[in-house]
Amino acid sequence: MIPSNYRLWTLLVVSMFLVASTAMAATAWIAVPSAPDASNKVTISGGDLAPASSVEIQIEQPDGEQTVKFATVNADGNFSLEIQPVTAGSYKVKVLDGNGSEVGSGNFISTK
Q1: Measuring CA to CA, which residue among 21, 99, 97, 88 is closest to residue 56?
Q2: Total domains present in the chain
Q3: Which domain holds residue 102?
Q4: Residues 89-98: tens digit of each pLDDT
Q5: pTM of the predicted model as reported, rounded to 2 decimal places
């Protein structure tokens, strides 16, 4: 027969491990530069996502028209998508994970 305090101790250790591993889980991030680079390109990137998953990148142009692009997350949990704005103005970017949940968003302004 196993002593009851051993069971309690085991339960406590397992519980602490579960809490610690949840607290240590990385939070996904998204990066959108504030303006295009010298060649008028914008690189939207993100990380700490599920490897081999897909993300949806919604880009709202200055005229309100929305473009949707997709990117595949690599084995390290990162993605990168390069776009080239076609008109000057303020752009809004939203990134959704494979479940349709928003991972992050950002804005940039193109002067070209």
Answers
A1: 97
A2: 1
A3: 27-110
A4: 999 999 999 9
A5: 0.76
